[in-house]
């Protein structure tokens, strides 16, 4: 992946909140690092440029987290460095049994700066293990990834994993979009706030969302054992 995916990734995930369309992922190349050389040898000026590049890179990856629709990631083969940054931002992670993961940055002379060190420990819930993986840059298998809670399911093949992801997406799509989006918002908010703050957040959010027609539609469908139909957001 090029150093500057923010030119495409962030806008696309923002658009997903409003458009019902398929967005193909693309790998872009951008000469921003060349611009650093144009700043000359002044360390401070080059540092400001690199800070801005990192900031935009972080914003691109964070766009997956800020996208109000749930994001499912399917990983396979080598998932190294930036792949961990991306996987750590999504809502649901599936993988294939051939996958090998690594927080590889320490092995190439830098500290991960796009979100792994902030999100991965909270995802796996094991501070000691998260530090071990980040500080040693060692590989860990798909099975270990499931054992530590980094992924929820391991599939034998990529096709099977993709089918599983589509099935999960369809299941979520059959539910009230108000409920699904509200649930993701609460989960993302709760990760970085106390229980008390999370409960207060829910008070204000559900004060509005409980007035949705989706609630009565879902209850009615459950009682009649029928399939509810919800308006799009």
Class per helix and strand makeup: mainly alpha
Rounded mean pLDDT score: 88
Give the percentage of residues in beta strands. 5-15%
* The number of domains: 3
Radius of gyration, CA atoms, in whole angstroms: 20 Å
What letter string, H or E per element, gives the SSE order? HHHEEHEEHHEHEHHHH
Give the terminus-to-terminus CA distance: 32 Å
| Main beta-sheet strand count, sense and barrel state | 3 strands, parallel
CATH H-tier superfamily of the largest domain: 2-enoyl-CoA Hydratase, Chain A, domain 1
What would the principal axes of the Cα set say about the shape? globular
CATH architecture annotation of the largest domain: Alpha-Beta Complex
What's the level 1 CATH class of the largest domain?
Answer: Alpha Beta
Write down the CATH topology of the largest domain: 2-enoyl-CoA Hydratase, Chain A, domain 1
Read across the widest sheet, the strand sequence of neighbours is 1-3-6
Low-confidence stretches: 21-30
- Per DSSP E runs of 2 or more residues, the count of β-strands stands at 6
InterPro entries: ClpP/crotonase-like_dom_sf (IPR029045), Ech1-like (IPR045002), Enoyl-CoA_hydra/iso (IPR001753), Enoyl-CoA_hydra_C (IPR014748)
Keywords: Fatty acid metabolism, Isomerase, Lipid metabolism
Pfam families: ECH_1
GO molecular function, one term: delta(3,5)-delta(2,4)-dienoyl-CoA isomerase activity
Describe this structure in words.
The chain is mainly α and 233 residues long. It folds into 3 domains: 1-68, no CATH class; 70-173, 2-enoyl-CoA Hydratase, Chain A, domain 1, CATH 3.90.226.10; 175-224, Lyase 2-enoyl-coa Hydratase, Chain  A, domain 2 (Orthogonal Bundle). Helix content is 55%, strand content 9%. The chain contains 11 helices and 6 strands. The protein has helices at residues 9-15, 32-38, 43-66, 82-89, 116-124, 127-136, 142-147, 158-173, 177-191, 195-209, 213-224, and strands at residues 72-75, 78-80, 92-96, 100-102, 140-141, 153-155. The strands form 2 sheets. Strands 1-3-6 form a 3-stranded parallel beta sheet. It has a 3-stranded mixed beta sheet with strand order 2-4-5. The longest helix is centred in the first third of the chain and has 24 residues, at 43-66. It is globular and about 70 Å long. It starts with 8 loop residues before the first helix and ends in a 9-residue tail after the last helix.
